[in-house]
Every structure is written in C-alpha cells, then in structure tokens.
Write a structure and sequence with these properties.
Elements: E1 2-12, E2 18-28, E3 31-35, H1 42-49, E4 57-62, H2 71-77, E5 78-81, H3 93-103, H4 108-121, H5 137-149, E6 155-159, H6 167-183, E7 187-192, H7 195-201, E8 204-209, E9 212-218, H8 219-222, E10 225-233, H9 237-246, E11 252-254, E12 257-261, H10 267-277, E13 282-289, H11 298-303
Parallel strand pairs: 3-7, 3-8, 5-6, 6-7
Antiparallel strand pairs: 1-2, 1-4, 8-9, 10-12, 10-13, 11-12
Helix pairs in contact: 3-4, 4-5, 6-7
The structure holds adenosine-5'-triphosphate.
The site of adenosine-5'-triphosphate has 13 residues, from α1.
Pfam families: ABC_tran (PF00005)
Keywords: ATP-binding, Nucleotide-binding, Transport
GO molecular function: ATP binding
Length: 304
C-alpha cells in the first residue's frame, strides 16, 4: 500500500536555496529510511509531509491526503518526533505527553491513559513522574518518541532520532524504532545522515542528494547480487590471478580475494575449472552483493 506519494516535488526557500528538486517517489508502508548528507533536504521533506511548509511546485500526498489543504486530517494520522530539543524541563514526562495527547483532541482520561501506554512502550513507565529536566539525553529522545505515539498514529516521522546519543543509546533507540514498526504495525520514516543506522532497521530507503532523488527502493533490491564473483583460494592466489587473466578475465585483487566480473553465462564454470586445473584449495566462491553505500558518490559516502 502506498502511504506517501510525491510528484515533481520542489521546494525553494527565500534566498534561492532549492532544498528539494523535482522529486517523484512512491513509498509503501513499512519502516522507511530517508537518508542523505546534512543539507540534502530531509527535514524539508518531513516539514512538507506535516503541512508545516508548502511545496513551491509539484505535489505530495500522505495517505492520499494533501498536507496543505487537509492538514488536520494528516496530523491526526501522523506522529512527529522533531530533531531538536524541544521539551519543557520543569514538567514530568507523564504531564507533557498527556498534554500533547490533549492537543491531539483526546479527552482528559484517554490522554492520560494513552500517555502512560506510550511511555511504557518507550521504556519510561517507571520514570514517568520525574521532571524531564533531570532526564539523560537518551530518555529525552524517548519522551519525544512517546509524544509522537500518543494519538495512536498510522505513520511516525522521526527526524534524526539517534542525535546526541552514545553508541549504546543509539542501539537502544534503533531497536525501539524497529520494534514499533514491526510489532505495532505503524509505518515509520526514519530520517538520518547515518546510512549504516537506517540500513540496519529499515525495509526500504529513500536516498536524496542535494534535493534530488538518488533512489527509492527496498533494501533487499539495493543489495541484490552483483555481477562480480569473489574467489578466494587458501593458497596460489597469484597463480590463479594470472591463469584467469590468460583466459581473458579482468581480475582485481582485493585482500585475499580475487574479484572477477561475470561477463557471460559460462564465466562461472570457466573460473571454477581454472581453480580445479591448478588444483588449488578453493575457500570461497560467491557472487558479491551490492552495498547500499554505492548509491552515494565518494564525497557523499564520506559524509553518511
Ligand atoms: N528556512 C530556510 N530558509 C532557507 N534555506 C533553508 C531553510 N531551511 C533549510 N534550508 C536549506 O535547504 C537545504 C536543505 O535543508 P534541510 O534542513 O531540509 O536538509 P537536511 O537533509 O534535513 O539537513 P540536516 O540533516 O542538516 O538537517 C539546506 O541547504 C538548508 O540550508
């Protein structure tokens, strides 16, 4: 089921910065990573989905709704966890999340119950009556997640949810996001400049670079088998490389591996035969998988 669809979506800010350029994409339900380096246009995309800013041209629909014309309907179905710290320090998590529930239109008792439930889901149930000002960064991030969940949305938009967290905190947050997406059946868009993080927990990725769409696809398709064979023999690597070159293969050594492009249907059998002819102990022979990082240019990969 398509939950987000854009058509030539473009956003130009005053001053002439084009944050999103002609972006056309359809996104299915699931846990979706929105990745790109700092300044790629991720937050702009999220703000348009929430109806906080309007596109300069093109269109965007969330659950077939227009966030500009049908803002309330969109916000009723979407939860938002902003990137920056935005929590009042002098109220408890319970009070704050209840308040957000009330803002979403929940009656008093229901808001209190839903707040407790959301705080339990994020692992803050025991601590919910403490003032937020005394919380660690990881706990504050989880309060932001709980307030996004309180009105029982169908879609969560998380802007850099692991920001400011140490490695253990990052792991815990990613596990939580993955669990929310998979156990609660809520779709999640996780916005991050850290490709490795989102790759771990997402079903699909939208990769953007300088406001342009690089690719939107399921992770499994992005990491499909490539047409390069990795061959490893326990000994005689150089001997095998020259034998394969004599047979006309382009061989690239990489550590203990030889990488050989599979340019024809018979290439695989010929490589195997070459190993057998030299009587070398074959350790590994498998087709390389594409890596998601290949999407980005060398400069961009250094940033993500
Ligand atoms: N209100 C604004 N006015 C002018 N330019 C803006 C505004 N907001 C964002 N930009 C610019 O638009 C581009 C995209 O910004 P955006 O915040 O969407 O990127 P991002 O991928 O979310 O980056 P980050 O991870 O740093 O938040 C950047 O060049 C940014 O400087």
């Amino acid at each position: 089921m398509t939950i987000i669809a854009t058509q030539a979506l473009t956003k130009t800010y005053g001053g002439g910065v084009t944050a999103l350029a002609d972006l056309t994409v359809e996104v299915d339900a699931g846990v979706i990573g929105l990745v790109g380096a700092n300044g790629a246009g991720k937050s702009t995309f999220i703000k348009i989905m929430l109806g906080l800013i309007a596109p300069s041209s093109g269109s965007l629909r969330v659950f077939e709704l227009d966030p500009v014309a049908e803002t309330d309907k969109v916000r009723a179905r979407v939860g938002y966890m902003p990137e920056n710290d935005c929590l009042p320090p002098d109220v408890s998590a319970s009070e704050f999340v209840t308040h957000v529930g009330r803002l979403s239109g929940l009656p008093k008792t229901a808001a209190r119950e839903r707040a407790s439930e959301a705080l339990r889901h994020v692992g803050l149930y025991e601590e919910r009556y403490r003032q937020i000002g005394g919380y660690s960064t990881g706990m504050k991030q989880r309060v932001k997640l709980a307030q996004a969940l309180v009105h029982d949305p169908d879609l969560l938009l998380l802007d850099e949810p692991t920001n400011g967290l140490d490695p253990a905190g990052r792991d815990a947050m990613l596990t939580l996001v993955h669990r929310i997406g998979n156990e609660f059946g809520i779709s999640v868009v996780v916005c991050s400049h850290l490709l490795g993080e989102v790759e771990r927990i997402c079903d699909s990725l939208i990769a953007i670079e300088g406001g342009h769409l690089l690719r939107a696809d399921r992770i499994s398709s992005m990491t499909a088998a490539s047409d390069v064979l990795a061959v490893e023999v326990s000994e005689g690597t150089d001997e095998l490389a020259s034998a394969l070159r004599t047979l006309g293969f382009k061989v690239t050594p990489e550590g203990r591996l030889l990488l050989v492009p599979l340019e024809s249907d018979v290439a695989y059998d010929r490589i195997l035969q070459a190993v057998a002819d030299l009587d070398l102990p074959l350790h590994r022979l498998d087709q390389r998988r594409h890596r998601v990082a290949e999407l980005f240019t060398a400069k961009e990969t250094a940033d993500v």
